[in-house]
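Q: Sequence in, structure out?
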Amino acid sequence: MTAPPHARPARRPTVSPARRRAGLAVLATMTFVVVTTETLPVGLLTLISDDLGAARSRVGLLVTVYAFTVGLTAAPLTTWTAGWPRKRLFVAVGAVFFMGTVLCGLAVDYPMLAIGRFVCGIAHGVFWSIVAGYAAALAGPEHAGRATSIVFAGNSAALVLGVPLGTALGGAVGWRGAFCAVAALGLGALAAALWLLPGIPERRAPRSSSLSGVLRLPGLRPLVAATALLVLGHFTVYTYVTPLLHDVGAFSETAIGMLLALYGLAGFLGTWLGGALADRRPQPALLGTIALMAAALLLPGAGIRLQPLAVAAVALWGIAFAALPVSLQASVLRLASTAPDAASSWYVAAFNLGIGGGALMGGLLSATTVAALPWAAVIAVLPAVALVGTRRAALPRLLPR
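A: Exactly. Output:
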């Protein structure tokens, strides 16, 4: 696939390697802040419920509604801001996210907390639509996968460190204090972005950069659909992994905490592998990651009562799902090199609709039996192999020569 003659691919900013590395570090740090804020209600659910007098299920809806807010606003807002300089947009999105997080920290009732989450959700969609493209523009097209993996390292760090630290802070200074602490970290990241983040040279937007136009790019629609299915399958199980491990696997609460830590640590390996392989063998890397994820979900379905098997499944799952967004996002950037932000907005929308849909489907199934969750997840994941396989020859051709 070649770019239209009137469209020029984004040039890498003419900055020093040290400044480029600093910029990627800023992007990864802001990713850590965003993902930590997104998942804070999971660890603080009981504290918020008790303090505000809201049912736990109602507090849990803050995660689902957040995901749907991102899914529904990412594409239109990214299109609306398409003409903004990337650094200015990144800082503006970070500022909106900071204000939403502060609003959560100052919330005196459930509606105020929900409004704060809504503000964060609006900024979240645009953030994820531009951050990977920004990283790829800084690193250059030949290192798109590796640059994306650096950004997603912030995501893995948030899952391993952010949520446990936020939960611990909630116990020490209250749930509002936890939100305010993350907001303070976000403010520091904003200051670093203003000082260290290089700008990206302006480019003339091609016609394919519209929301409808970008979906006509070969291979993008199957990737977007596969993303929604994969994430839906993942969150069908992940949202209710604690009762699954406890009620079916007979793990203690302490052991479950250690298993979730193992999942997060395995994610660092998955992020690194995803970045390395996405630059060299994008199609095999993506198909292999999906196959590994399907196997990791099949293992607990078939033998979660065998605890060693369940431990292996959790580790494989952590590797696979951490590598998956890196491979998917790098593939999106290659397929839509002339319109990375518009294409990423569809990817972000599909990802977050998958989160919300998976949480809802998992909730419905867990009301009957949590043991069925891994099988339901596999049913959602397997069609994604066919969807990605339909463009078997597309991604290698898009590798830089």
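The two ends are 13 Å apart (CA to CA).
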